[in-house]
Amino acid sequence: MELPENYIPFDKYQGLGNDFIILDLADEAILRPEIFQLLANRRLGVGCDQIMVIMPANASQHNCDARIRIFNTDGSEAEACGNGTRCVIQVLAKKLRRSHIILDTKAGVLSGTMHSIGDVEVEQGRPRFKDEALDLCAYGLPGIVGHPVDIGNPHLVIFFSDDTIPDFERLGAVLEHHPKFENRTNVEFCCIDHNREQIRVWMWERGAGRTLACGSGACATAFVALKLELLGVDKSFVTIQMEAFTTATFKMPWLSILATANKARSEYD
Predict the structure, then answer these.
(1) What architecture does CATH give domain 128-261?
(2) Of 64, 81, 87, 219, which is the active-site residue?
(3) Does the active-site annotation cover 87?
(4) pTM, 2 dp
(5) What is the DSSP letter of 185?
(6) Quick one: average pLDDT of 63-86?
(7) Do the domains 11-123 and 128-261 sit in the same CATH topology, yes or no?
(8) 79: which of 107, 175, 182, 195 fits an S-S bond (Cβ 3.0–4.6 Å)?
(9) Averaged pLDDT of the chain
(10) For position 135, what pLDDT does the model report?
(11) Is 81 assigned a catalytic role?
């Protein structure tokens, strides 16, 4: 069958409830916000949380297998996406027939490994506090602070004393535009269980809104929890439960490289 001239093949993956359209392209002329907005629309297009675009690596990054660009549902470009990166690693590992993949991203060079189909690990990067804690009283949250974290992309991590979190979709839409963040931010609404053993997180992603999971957001959450000593369990691992009823374990071998591993299932739709 002859394919139309404007035909663009794609893969659809999900990781921890985050779903992605994955495009393997060589032509950057196709990368237009209006195209991504249509593709991501769940009624008029295919539907997804983010679009991952695989492109040839730049000549200056000769050790990289590919370059990826990440686009949100509103057409804006993101620096990083942990779950999406894992899905891309699975695509490339199968295509290149090797398990270890190195990627050039806006957040820097990332590497990952496909241990088996659906079992993919990515070195997410070294998180750091971007600023001091922000008082959120003006947003109707007296006594609550938000912790700005940079893990290649921006996050605002907020811990509550229990799971009676206020209307987080309304708050997320507002806090995404907090003036401390030049290019908007992702927002994590978190609470720790009574045994201080795991963290439950509700995600608001910049440019995408409410999502069922966020790999880089979970890493940022784990980083804050360990830095503030909020957990009473073995600090070499942090378990996080996200809204899709999926639980991910984040490896913390040493405090200096907290939250570098984002390991969970990546599945082909």
Answers:
(1) Roll (3.10)
(2) 81
(3) no
(4) 0.85
(5) -
(6) 94
(7) yes
(8) 107
(9) 86
(10) 97
(11) yes
Of 48, 64, 87, 214, the active-site residue reads 214
Q: Rounded to 10 degrees, what is the CA torsion of 137, 138, 140, 141? A: -20
What is the predicted pLDDT for the residue at 117? 85
Across 61-211, where does the E strand assignment appear? 66-72, 77-78, 100-105, 108-116, 119-123, 128-129, 134-135, 145-150, 154-160, 186-192, 198-205, 209-211
pLDDT in tens, 134-166: 999 999 999 999 999 999 899 999 999 876 777
Angstrom distance (rounded) from CA 148 to CA 180: 9
Residue keyed to tokens 């009473």: 232
**11-123 has which CATH code?**
3.10.310.10
CA pair distance 92, 69, nearest whole angstrom: 15
Strands 100-105 and 108-116, by their bridges, are antiparallel
Q: Which residue has the higher pLDDT, 87 or 236?
A: 87
Backbone angles phi, psi at 79, to 5 degrees: -85, -35
Q: Where are the domains of the chain?
A: 11-123, 128-261
DSSP string covering 46-75: ---SEEEEEEPPPTT-TT-SEEEEEEETTS
